[in-house]
Amino acid sequence: MSFNYNRLDKDDVVLLMVDHQSGLLSLVRDFSPDDFRNNVLALADIAKFFDIPSILTTSFEDGPNGPMVPELKEMFPDAPYFARPGQINCWDNEDFVKAVKATGKKQILIAGVVTDVCVAFPTLSALAEGYEVFVVTDASGTFNLTTRDAAWSRMEQAGAQLMNWFSVGCELHRDWRNDIEGFGGILAKHLPQYANLIQSYTAQKG
Amino acid sequence: MSFNYNRLDKDDVVLLMVDHQSGLLSLVRDFSPDDFRNNVLALADIAKFFDIPSILTTSFEDGPNGPMVPELKEMFPDAPYFARPGQINCWDNEDFVKAVKATGKKQILIAGVVTDVCVAFPTLSALAEGYEVFVVTDASGTFNLTTRDAAWSRMEQAGAQLMNWFSVGCELHRDWRNDIEGFGGILAKHLPQYANLIQSYTAQKG
Amino acid sequence: MSFNYNRLDKDDVVLLMVDHQSGLLSLVRDFSPDDFRNNVLALADIAKFFDIPSILTTSFEDGPNGPMVPELKEMFPDAPYFARPGQINCWDNEDFVKAVKATGKKQILIAGVVTDVCVAFPTLSALAEGYEVFVVTDASGTFNLTTRDAAWSRMEQAGAQLMNWFSVGCELHRDWRNDIEGFGGILAKHLPQYANLIQSYTAQKG
Amino acid sequence: MSFNYNRLDKDDVVLLMVDHQSGLLSLVRDFSPDDFRNNVLALADIAKFFDIPSILTTSFEDGPNGPMVPELKEMFPDAPYFARPGQINCWDNEDFVKAVKATGKKQILIAGVVTDVCVAFPTLSALAEGYEVFVVTDASGTFNLTTRDAAWSRMEQAGAQLMNWFSVGCELHRDWRNDIEGFGGILAKHLPQYANLIQSYTAQKG
Amino acid sequence: MSFNYNRLDKDDVVLLMVDHQSGLLSLVRDFSPDDFRNNVLALADIAKFFDIPSILTTSFEDGPNGPMVPELKEMFPDAPYFARPGQINCWDNEDFVKAVKATGKKQILIAGVVTDVCVAFPTLSALAEGYEVFVVTDASGTFNLTTRDAAWSRMEQAGAQLMNWFSVGCELHRDWRNDIEGFGGILAKHLPQYANLIQSYTAQKG
Amino acid sequence: MSFNYNRLDKDDVVLLMVDHQSGLLSLVRDFSPDDFRNNVLALADIAKFFDIPSILTTSFEDGPNGPMVPELKEMFPDAPYFARPGQINCWDNEDFVKAVKATGKKQILIAGVVTDVCVAFPTLSALAEGYEVFVVTDASGTFNLTTRDAAWSRMEQAGAQLMNWFSVGCELHRDWRNDIEGFGGILAKHLPQYANLIQSYTAQKG
Amino acid sequence: MSFNYNRLDKDDVVLLMVDHQSGLLSLVRDFSPDDFRNNVLALADIAKFFDIPSILTTSFEDGPNGPMVPELKEMFPDAPYFARPGQINCWDNEDFVKAVKATGKKQILIAGVVTDVCVAFPTLSALAEGYEVFVVTDASGTFNLTTRDAAWSRMEQAGAQLMNWFSVGCELHRDWRNDIEGFGGILAKHLPQYANLIQSYTAQKG
Amino acid sequence: MSFNYNRLDKDDVVLLMVDHQSGLLSLVRDFSPDDFRNNVLALADIAKFFDIPSILTTSFEDGPNGPMVPELKEMFPDAPYFARPGQINCWDNEDFVKAVKATGKKQILIAGVVTDVCVAFPTLSALAEGYEVFVVTDASGTFNLTTRDAAWSRMEQAGAQLMNWFSVGCELHRDWRNDIEGFGGILAKHLPQYANLIQSYTAQKG
Fold first, then answer.
1. Nearest to C34 by CA among D194, D22, D47, F117
2. What are the residues whose beta carbons fall under 8 Å from the beta carbon of G21, sequence distance 6 or more?
3. DSSP H helical segments within chain D, as ranges?
4. What was the ipTM of the complex prediction?
5. Nearest 5°: phi and psi at H82?
6. pLDDT tens, chain D, 206 aa long
7. Run of H or E residues at C42
8. Catalytic residue among F18, F25, F118, F172
């Protein structure tokens, strides 16, 4: 009955970025556009900072769903990238799953658009195969709060853990002394309110 | 302890549409009237598209609760239809349950008005008989968000899975290549924001 | 692993009305005052209608908490009534628990003010003694939504079922034919929107 | 440029209750049903208490709009009552306007359903004829807050004053000493939170 | 100081539909997509019903803003249509203004995307030229509520009247007897909650 | 047409604190209790700091409305204090008005409970007598936001200016150099978020 | 399957106050600043009242995060205090954990800033070591409600119980007779709405 | 009585950026931090794009209020910059006003923190001197929505026009053909949802 706390481990985790495409992003209404862009790029910066293997995928990118957001593509030039020919659940794409398994990691960080489909389906698939799945809720968006709430419920029930990009970064980092400047830089870039603290501090410290 | 992901399977699922009646609909206030009408009809279109056996039922339709929404009746002219003489929980109506069992399906999709009674009661009954139950939360409405939250909690606790019409459609469809036009048509009809993507795409592609 | 659906049974349930006192009611801010008064009285009417044994209790009613709402006292003139001398959790009052046990019921319906204390504590106590506990969420109020959410979470986790007065009434009634007029009268009195349906129906039926 | 404060004067005001009909009430979603029923009846009680001449009117009451709420009809058995044959703006009904003018009052209190039509149109008409118009905003309802905001803006711009039933009652009463019991009774009936204060006071005063 | 009520007059009004384009619509977040589509089409149906001269315009429709919503184009096949080459304020397009003036109307109904630019600018321009301008607020959308509130304030201050499609329809119609079926049909189509009233009425009337 | 900016002038303003009584405060629901207490006491601190003549009044303080909040009474031991025998509008109390006029001030700061009555009525009365009236909106509370919005509209329309305690303090202070410590102390006490800035600053400056 | 209700026991619980620092507090936006300050100080007062061993810790207090709130430091002058040199999860600080274990308590009360990191991480760590953990949700703050909801979900899933400072106080106190004055004093200080009840009571009792 | 539409004119307008300082920004809670940073920088980019003379000012920047946001300072290296020694209303600083007047412009664009003081006071001062003032509401922030609403009301009443950065940009630009790339670049940078449209367009156009 006792709980076992398996922390996110930068050496045992793979990041899945699912369907952050220019068309699909216009469907996201549980975040403001500024907030959501910031959250997605913050998560990407964290993955880069910790050298976490990352896998990108899109759905029908030649159609109305549009291409993957260019910033993401540029940030992960060498990451495995799967433009799926039709599978809605990216876990149904054999190449994608093969790439995930090839990393040898047991933990999955996942974010995507829309939460109830592009995130929930592979989350359930991965849980069913024994992975620990951590959903980055604020880098995943969908139509409205009702849909979000239902999707979160389904994933929780199956055992997924709900996190946000900031707590993901902190759980991976563990100790500021591992790299104060680097991690602080990410916070300053993606948390304007934290950047303000740093600026006041610097000014006042002289 | 490991999770088993039984996806919605179009060959093993039956849809129950419970008490979408003109009078009862005026009680629904956890959705705007436009949104709710759209959600209910979208779910019906999905059931038609995947040829999912569907069963309709109403409560006291000759009284203040009013008749079933005519669009639903027209969409399922041959579906089993049970105007219950008094049972509040449609699972207490023997003919209804017999019809459900006659389909031989093990998965149930359910939506209705109001969520805390007409959806929750048969959901709990069906779970108790071993069915997998998927509640279509956005085609189910009730008095207010407090009531909705309590009803969702009770159903979750009993093992129901909470979904929305869009994720139901996607989980049933699995792969766009199974029928791009057909499935895309449903989305265009019921997701104006997706219709806009298609229209821009078509115009720009020339 | 299968779920067992023990419905609310009018012959096996006792209602606990905890601390609906004039002073404490001024603390309730997760409902409008009109809504909350209506919900509490609706629950009381349901208990009367189904002849459910009911037990009332108050905390420090001679102090700032104030006396029990007079309507409740008048509706249950013969119900066991316990003005607790100091116990915060009414389950710590031996006489109260004795009265509950004397009913011989296995199901408990509970509502009170405030949700996180006067409802949550006896709910947890009763669950620990093996009772099935159904919390009437909309006849229970507290300081704000954050507090409400936390209190609901704690009770859910312990196995309580969250309901609302309308679903309680419907689950107890089971079939309209048991008494159409009586049950309809309660709805007409406490659901203005349903009263309107009845009125339109009556006028139009002529 | 200086402001002239013409208070509501019980000897110079007429109340117009417009289209509070059982069908139309189902359209009101800027208030909870309990709150709205309470507000409408509170306004009616105030008019009765101050013997304010009141005029009732309905639109197509034999059709889907339904009959006027029975409580209102019963409270004003002798009031002029106009079931309009088709005019949307009740000010377009000559008999209605004649009745208003026959009162000889210069101030109008108005409430109705829906705010943007049944209240706004006669408000603008009456202002154009030189009446002072006081809109009872919480006894007037409409589809949603966007519509409410636009309707309020239009009426404000034309010079209407926006009030609520409680401030209407207080401005008419002027001094508690005119009738403490009577006015307090209305507040106790329609402000549960005030009834609680009275109850605590009474209990504590002994 | 007295107010002059110039009602919307179907013989003296022109409708301007500004920039309802597939791309721009993805920017609208002060309404749900279903609600907004419904509102825009309801306004168009009203204009058709009353034979109100209507003028359509788009901004950069060959670029990312996308083409005008096809339903609008189909509904107004013979309406003047101006695909502006670059003017942001459509009132800066001479042909557009010429078309407005050619109608000889003194009242303008306007709706568009986004409210703070495509609606506010021509509204201010038209007011400055002496037109009476009625903004259809619920067929006009923008980025968020803060922006909406500021845009409404600016237009109010300049003398524009804020309305919604329903009140526009009612003020134009004036009397149900002018065409009960026709006008009722529009309401039934665009107000699901009113359609339900009609359906209950019809069923119960027999 | 040009605007004349008469700033709040500490030598020409009187503060009216109306009906902040223990019973009436339980009616205030447009602020959280913590926020409201803080706002009222902040306004009082500002009046003390600038030595603004202040006048206190209560309505029926021996009845359910309860006594004035003790902190206020203690802060203004020598202020004129009027326990009104029955007048709802404190401007109807001759002694009160005499006290206001005796100050010889032309500007009035007013706050009270409830906004739509105890603030709005004297505000309109004072405007009618030529005073400039500044309503401290966040030290004035009422039943809900609908009521607040209507009351604000009525007061704006009559020419009152809506402010908050912080802007009142700043407009009176004009220049930090007049007393940095004193004014900063009030902010630190009533703006926890500003207190945090000061604390960080002090710590970092060393 | 039966639930075991281990109440908070003042003799078996330790309080952890984590990172309530002046800089970090500016990040908290799921509470108003007034509410949050009040909640944190109320929790501290409760711990003092029940003589609960308390442990304080901060993260990088010499940097932008700023010093611990001075009120907390003053209230617990003798409490173990750990200014962590870099560990984000305070449970990673050996001295901190040693201090917790040295208390010999089996229950942990925890509050901190931000909820998703500074509260969630040590909560999960403590649960994994077999502690019962009670999160004081309203004395713990974070960036926004989405983040809060995800963090609560993760902690619930692991077995933490979500409470609020008021229910913590009540569960520890158990019976008012243990010290009416003392406990009432805390409520009067931190619940203005309860202070009002006491004041009315005292005035009316005479 | 007729309205005169003086558009924002890039040759006759000066921008005032008031007190966007790292400490004060932590007080802004009517926008998310991401949204607010984006809005402020978008406004700055617009001023740069149209070469609008800009004046910056800060209040007590060596104290807890902190230094001006560095991005702003860098964007306007040659702009007049006034670190006010104590005046709260920047219009009380003679050098500042002299700089404004030296521009010879008749229109003022203003944004700042906090809205009710640092924006409202100079807005009223400038209006009183005959300037046309356009408040950029979404680049101005304050404590909460109540405060924002009151501040907007006061400025509107005095004749200020409320705008948002996007409408400011569009009113200045007038015609896309003046510089499609340049203006589109600003939108792409500060409206992620518009950037997505551009990206889809570019991809699909090929």
1. D194
2. G58, G59, G61, G65, G66, G67, G68, G69, G113
3. 33-49, 70-75, 94-102, 120-128, 145-158, 165-173, 180-190, 192-205
4. 0.97
5. -125, 110
6. 579 999 999 999 999 999 999 999 999 999 999 999 999 999 999 999 999 999 999 999 999 999 999 999 999 999 999 999 999 999 999 999 999 999 999 999 999 999 999 999 999 999 999 999 999 999 999 999 999 999 999 999 999 999 999 999 999 999 999 999 999 999 999 999 999 999 999 998 87
7. helix C33-49
8. F118
Q: What are phi and psi of F30, to 5 degrees?
A: -95, 5
The answer, for C6 touching chain D at a CB cutoff of 8 Å, is no
Q: Does F194 contact H64 at a Cβ distance shorter than 8 Å? A: yes
Contact (Cβ atoms closer than 8 angstroms) between residue D144 and residue B32: yes
Beta bridge partners of C175: B87
The DSSP string of chain H is ---------TTSEEEEEE--BTTGGGG--SS-HHHHHHHHHHHHHHHHHTT--EEEEEESTTSTT-PBPHHHHHH-TTS-EEEESSBSSGGG-HHHHHHHHHTT-SEEEEEEBSIIIIIHHHHHHHHHTT-EEEEEGGG-B-S-HHHHHHHHHHHHHHT-EEE-HHHHHHHHH-BGGG-HHHHHHHHHHH-HHHHHHHHHHHHHH-
Name the 3-class secondary structure at E23. Answer: coil
The angle subtended at Cα A172 by Cα A170 and Cα A175, nearest 5°, is 65
Peptide bond into F114 cis (omega under 30): yes
Question: How do the domains of chain B map onto residue ranges?
Answer: 13-174, 178-205
The shortest CB-CB distance from A137 to any of G60, G114, G146 is to: G146
Count A/H contacts: CB-CB distance under 8 Å. 75
Asked whether A and G share 3 or more beta-carbon pairs under 8 angstroms, the answer is yes
Residue pair E171/E8 in contact by the 8 Å Cβ criterion: yes
Radius of gyration of chain C from Cα atoms?
A: 17
Q: Helix or strand or coil: residue G9?
A: coil
Complete DSSP assignment for B50-79: TT--EEEEEESTTTTT-PBPHHHHHH-TTS
In this structure, what token pair is assigned to residue B133? Answer: 């139950």
* Total length of chain F: 206
Q: Say whether residue G180 is in contact with chain A using an 8 A CB cutoff.
A: no
| pLDDT tens figures, E95-110 | 999 999 999 999 999 9
Instruction: Provide the residue count of chain C.
Output: 206
Question: What CATH architecture applies to the domain E13-174?
Answer: 3-Layer(aba) Sandwich (3.40)
Q: Chains C and F: how many Cβ contacts under 8 Å? A: 4
All residues of chain B having their beta carbon less than 8 Å from the beta carbon of residue A131 are none
Helices (H), chain B: 22-25, 33-49, 70-75, 94-102, 120-128, 145-158, 165-173, 180-190, 192-205
Q: Do E200 and C205 touch (CB under 8 A)?
A: no
Count the alpha carbons within 13 Å of D3 in the hemisphere toward its beta carbon: 22
Classify H83 as helix, strand or coil.
strand
B103 with B59: CB under 8 angstroms? no
pLDDT in tens, H20-56: 999 999 999 999 999 999 999 999 999 999 999 999 9
Query: Rounded CA gap, E5 and D124, in Å?
Result: 6
DSSP three-state, residue E27: helix
Q: Vertex F70, ends F66 and F76: CA angle to 5°?
A: 120
Give the whole-angstrom CA distance, residue G136 versus residue G125.
16
Q: Is H118 a catalytic residue?
A: yes
Of F169, B101, H32, H53, the residue nearest A37 (C-alpha)? H32
CA distance H29 to chain A (A): 11
Show which of residues 60-79 on chain H sit within 8 Å of chain F, judged by CB atoms. Answer: 60, 63-66
Helix (H, G, I), strand (E, B) or coil at H85: coil
* Whether G177 contacts chain D with CB within 8 A: no
Bridge partners (DSSP) of residue G141 are G113
pTM across the whole model: 0.97
